[in-house]
Design goal:
2 copies of one chain form a homodimer. In chain A, a hairpin with a 6-residue loop joins strand 5 and strand 6. The longest helix of chain A is centred in the middle third of the chain and has 24 residues, at 65-88. Chain A has helices at residues 4-18, 26-33, 37-49, 65-88, 97-103, 109-118, 165-174, 207-211, and strands spanning 53-55, 61-63, 144-145, 154-160, 181-187, 194-198, 201-205, 213-216. Helices cover 42% and strands 17% of the residues of chain A. The termini of chain A are far apart. The structure holds a DNA duplex (30 and 30 nucleotides).
Chain lengths: 217, 217
DNA sequence: ATATTTTTTTAGATTTGTCTAAACTTATAG
DNA sequence: CTATAAGTTTAGACAAATCTAAAAAAATAT
């Protein structure tokens, strides 16, 4: 069983691994986890001793099979708690991350199975991210960035790839929330901004925003 | 804001204070918290520096006003989570203590207010213990031990003063659960065991058991 | 190919919470 | 009222996770 801190490292390494085939760098971890590179090196050695990561000096780390399992479990717990906070306690989607960050470390497996059942086995968290099932299996449906669509394309908002409060509050304000149907009405050539219709209203989003919204066609 | 460990000490000191007017002894804390007296002395000094306890060498500790507030807050969180686990996730009353022990340290006050609301502001936890309100106020209804009743007395089972799994499972098995109506039909003089009728059945409980069941007449 | 910059690691210190062993206080028994 | 026992504290050490400063390796630039 891992400590609170070890779990945080595993989770961060897992998230950083998703963007790359190659090993995760010490500095990248340090930045994400708000600590110094030297501390990361120390922890990496500890995780390597426990066979949770493969590590060669100066070469960064990769999760082992068992490290990956542990990480996915943490992600599962985090996302289930986010669903609970939004669906049952009426938190907004931009308010839940920090609380889930604490709740994810509660260890009882029985608790998580029952929570999953209580929430009716949700497949996605409030940001559209998939929730691993109890065997660690992830729904591998891949969504398309709104910025990749063409004029006339229709789709459903399924998630976001940027999780900051400012961004989520902005989406909330302009009405771009999970599950809504959209249709692209125009794409401005020179700045890539997108005009779309949603619930019979026309709104305009910048290319920056469009890149962070995930769509199912 | 206190650490996980400091919170545990405050909680234990609070519980031990309930049984006595005088200061709580180092050894008593050590026994409850599964640690050594020397460690307790160290932590007590830290809590005293933070003005959470009053401490004079060799004289034990008492919670200060602010220490007591902190402790009551932890108790509130613990008991609310116990209600959640039993009412919403269908845990049995003897299964929830350890999980609530972890959940009670999640810090967000907003979370607790919303949880309280979600549970419809329960007044008691699954063992009948009162839940402090958000101002720390405790319902001061005092219940009577079943062992104090006389033949013919009627009452409702409101709680238990012993929380071990074995005991709770035993009560569950013989049907003595929260909220049920009972009537004393006979008290055996020589061993103090109590015969009572509950839901038209006659059952017999030892004096030991009777002392740990709390009744509202 | 060498110099410079970036990244990573090491060495040694610090903090938090714990421990053992010994010393000290207070309580209890004769 | 002294001797012994019980309870508590101190001193010094340890493990976990962190840090700073300096050394070492790898990447980049001239």
């Amino acid at each position: 069983m891992q400590s609170f801190t070890e779990e945080n490292y595993l989770k961060i390494i897992y998230h950083l691994s998703l963007n790359t085939e190659s090993a995760v760098q010490t500095n990248a971890i340090a930045e994400r986890i708000q600590t110094k590179a030297a501390s990361v090196t120390d922890m990496i050695k500890k995780l390597a001793d426990k066979k949770l990561v493969d590590y060669k000096k100066y070469q960064g780390v990769k999760l082992t099979e068992s490290g990956k399992n542990a990480a996915i479990n943490i992600v599962r717990r985090h996302r289930l708690w986010e669903v609970f906070l939004v669906e049952k306690l009426n938190f907004k989607w931009d308010e839940v991350h920090d609380i889930a960050e604490e709740l994810e470390h509660i260890k009882s497996p029985e608790l998580i199975e029952r929570l999953d059942e209580f929430l009716a086995f949700p497949r996605n968290d409030p940001h559209g991210d998939p929730i691993p099932d109890k065997n660690g299996k992830l729904d591998n449906t891949v969504f398309i960035k709104l910025s990749k669509l063409k004029t006339g394309d229709k789709g459903l908002i399924m998630g976001v790839s940027e999780h900051s409060s400012v961004f989520l509050q902005h989406l909330e304000k302009i009405g771009l929330t999970l599950g809504k149907q959209i249709r692209i009405t125009e794409i401005t050539d020179f700045d890539g901004s997108v005009e779309l219709s949603i619930e019979n209203k026309q709104i305009n989003v910048s290319r920056e925003v469009a890149k962070s919204i995930l769509i199912k066609i």
